[in-house]
Fold this protein.
Amino acid sequence: MTYHPQPIDTSEVVIDTEHLKLIELLAKNTHEIWAQQRLADGWQYGPQRDDPLKQHPGLVPYENLPDSEKEYDRRIALEVIKALLALGYRIEG
């Protein structure tokens, strides 16, 4: 099987300051949802990922994540916001 991802074209979307604040809130929330599910599945904090022991170093508050992990969550949030805007939705606070 050959798979060619085709996400919504967001190349023309402009992100403003208010969107940046929302992106950070959504990034933190994304991490919180992920961590909540991991904990519910029996995972716990560990200094390195160990699937058989269900340990993961990312099971810490968002603020304590390394910047590389925060950037992953921010990118997901950014792309969701950009997709919504590209599809014609408006975000009002």
In short: Residues 18 and 92 are 9 Å apart (CA to CA). The two ends are 43 Å apart (CA to CA).
